[in-house]
Amino acid sequence: MCFLDQTSPQTSWYQSSKNTIGPLQNWAEGSLMWTLGTWTQAADGTFGPYIQGGCATCRGLFVVDKSKGTYEFTIDYYTLAQISRFIPKGAVILKGEGSYSYDGYNGIQSVASKNPDGTRSVVIENTFGNDVWVTVTFAGGQVWSGNALARSVTTWVLP
């Protein structure tokens, strides 16, 4: 199963990680951005193009300013690039516990994988306004601890 991700200029910075980590925790095999790219309209700064009947405010992985001939990558691009790099094709998602979301989607979400090269990756999304000390305990008894910075997506690669 693959999960399609849409974000909007009005959505939170963590929308792409939320829409990727959650499905991976529930055994999805991947996540895609539905809107690959958008451009600003010189006069009003709106984003487009849009599929008729689709999301009228969705943001893509990059934004092109046609009037200036420039482009910029969005937070969604960097988030998905990070997750894709550290949970590569062929990785096996590990069963995990300990992700917590509270009212307003504040909390810690994580997903761990065993990668084809033998390493293990843990991607941690911290939507709190403060750093959180996180401890990961693997089934074999190995323990890893570290700081997940406030409002961040952090990746640990473990031997």
Query: What is the molecular shape?
Result: globular
What's the gyration radius in Å? 17 Å
Number of strands: 13
Question: Terminal Cα separation, in Å?
Answer: 28 Å
Low-confidence stretches: 1-6
How many strands, what sense, and barrel or not for the largest sheet? Answer: 5 strands, antiparallel
Secondary-structure element order, as H and E?
EHEEEEEHEEEEEEE
Structural class label: mainly beta
* Arithmetic mean pLDDT: 77
What fraction, in percent, of the residue positions are helical? Answer: 10-25%
The proportion of residues in beta strands is 35-45%
Total helix count?
Answer: 2
Can you put this structure into words, describing what you see?
This protein is mainly beta and 159 residues long. It is 14% helix and 38% strand. The protein has 2 helices and 13 strands. The strands form 4 sheets. Strands 7, 8, 9, 10 and 13 form a 5-stranded antiparallel beta sheet that branches. Strands 4-3-5-6 form a 4-stranded mixed beta sheet. Strands 1-2 form a two-stranded parallel sheet. The chain is globular and about 55 Å long.
Notable characteristics:
159 residues, four-stranded mixed β-sheet, five-stranded antiparallel β-sheet, 2 helices, mainly beta, disordered N terminus
Q: Short summary of the structure?
A:
By secondary structure, the chain is mostly beta strands. It is 14% helix and 38% strand.
Please outline the helices and strands:
Elements: E1 2-5, H1 15-25, E2 30-33, E3 37-40, E4 47-48, E5 62-65, E6 70-73, H2 75-86, E7 92-94, E8 100-101, E9 107-114, E10 120-126, E11 132-137, E12 143-148, E13 152-158
Parallel strand pairs: 1-2, 3-5
Antiparallel strand pairs: 3-4, 5-6, 7-9, 8-9, 9-10, 10-13, 11-12
